Amino acid sequence: MKKTTVINSELSTVIAGMGHMDWLSIGDAGMPVPMGTKKIDLALTKQLPSFQDVLKNILAELEVQKIYLADEIKTQNPEQLAAIKELLPNVEIEYMPHSQLKKDLAQTHAFVRTGEMTPFSNIILESGVTF
């Protein structure tokens, strides 16, 4: 049995297969996922698991060099933005319109759906290197 943090087999496989500058996305329960994008659905019920719980779990195994967030998170969900910045204090952030973020999900290795029920709790993680 796997000893490290991410024990979901689908998610672990995606993370293990990522290379430098590949994208993985995490989002709230309502985020539409483009056809053809792998969807790893972890949502059980409202707020379970939370966006933050899933992000923390993934960050334990994925090196991240840059993140992409919707502009709207700044005004519509500043608490979530502050929590993201706390988890990733030295990582570059690029903001874009939510409509563009949704389109960019088609370029990710997978979208991880959480039970999060707060607006604009969506992120694209760009993988870095560990050397």
Automatic annotation (TrEMBL):
Q: Which organism is it from?
A: Levilactobacillus hammesii DSM 16381
- The main location is cytoplasm
Q: Which UniProt keywords apply?
A: Carbohydrate metabolism, Cytoplasm, Isomerase
Could you tell me what reaction this enzyme catalyses?
A: beta-D-ribopyranose = beta-D-ribofuranose
- Which positions are catalytic residues? H20 (proton donor)
**What subcellular compartments does it reside in?**
Cytoplasm
PANTHER family hit by this protein: D-RIBOSE PYRANASE (PTHR37831)
Listed EC numbers: 5.4.99.62
By what name is this protein known? D-ribose pyranase
- Pathway involvement? Carbohydrate metabolism; D-ribose degradation; D-ribose 5-phosphate from beta-D-ribopyranose: step 1/2
- Spell out the family assignment given in the record's similarity comment: Belongs to the RbsD / FucU family. RbsD subfamily.
A molecular function annotated in GO for this UniProt entry is: intramolecular lyase activity
